[in-house]
Amino acid sequence: MIMSELFLCLRDLATARRPLAIGEPLFRAGDPVERLYLVLTGEIVLERMSVTGSRLILQRAKAGDIVAEASCFAQSYHCDARSEAKSEVASIPRSRLEIVFRSNSGLVAMFAQHLARGLQQTRIRAEILSLHRLSDKLDAWLHIYDSVLPDKGRWLILAHELGVTPEALYRELGKRRKKSHVVRSESAFRA
C-alpha cells in the first residue's frame, strides 16, 4: 500500500484510533461532524439510500484513504459510513484540524488538491451512473480501474456502485465469461 504525503501528515495529527467490526457504523447521516477519519486497515463504505430505495455507494475508503473528507466543511454528515471489513481508523478532532489549517498553508494546498481529485472521481462516477446500459456502465468502470474486477465476494458492492441490481451484474459478468472476455480480479494481483 502506498500512502500519500497528505495521509501521512494527517495520520501524524491523529489523536485517537478505533477498531471497527464488519458492518459496524462509523457515523450515520445527521450525526455532527466532529472528527476527520483515516482508514488504517480494512475498508469503510459511505452509502446512502436512493429515492427508489436502492443502496448507493458514494465512497469505498481503503487503507491509506480519508473518509468523507469533504464533510469536514459541513455541520453534519449527509450519508452513513460503515465498516465493510474488519477495520481500524485514526481520527483527528475537527477543531485541531482547523487550527493546523490556519498555520500550515502547505497542508491546506495538499488537502485542496486531494479534494479536487475527489471531485474529478465523483464526476466520473456520475457519468457512469448516467449511462443506461449495464454493459456500458461496466465497461466505463473497468476502464477507470484498469480492467481489474473486484473479487467475487465484492461484486455486490460493485453492483451498488454501478446503480444496478446484483442479479443484473452477475448476468452481465456471466455473459462476458462465456464470450471469453477476460477481466482480471483483485486476487490475481495478490498471488
Major β-sheet strand ordering = 1-8-3-6
Look at the structure and give the mean pLDDT: 87
Helix count, DSSP H or I runs of 4 or more residues: 7
**Number of E-state strands:** 10
Extract low-pLDDT stretches.
none
- CATH architecture of the largest domain, by name, is Sandwich
Give the helices and strands as they follow along the chain: HEEEEEEEEHHHEHHEH
- Nearest-angstrom radius of gyration? 18 Å
Structural class comes to: alpha+beta
Shape: elongated
Instruction: Estimate the helix proportion, in percent.
Output: 40-55%
Let me know the CATH homologous superfamily of the largest domain.
Jelly Rolls
Distance between the termini: 15 Å
CATH domain class of the largest domain: Mainly Beta
| CATH topology-level name of the largest domain | Jelly Rolls
Describe this structure in words.
By secondary structure, the protein is α+β, with helices and mostly antiparallel strands. The chain folds into 2 domains: 5-121, Jelly Rolls, CATH 2.60.120; 131-190. 43% of the residues lie in helices and 25% in strands. It contains 7 helices and 10 strands. It has a 4-stranded antiparallel β-sheet. The chain has a 4-stranded antiparallel β-sheet with strand order 2-7-4-5. Strands 9-10 form a two-stranded parallel ribbon. The model has no long low-confidence stretch (mean pLDDT 87).
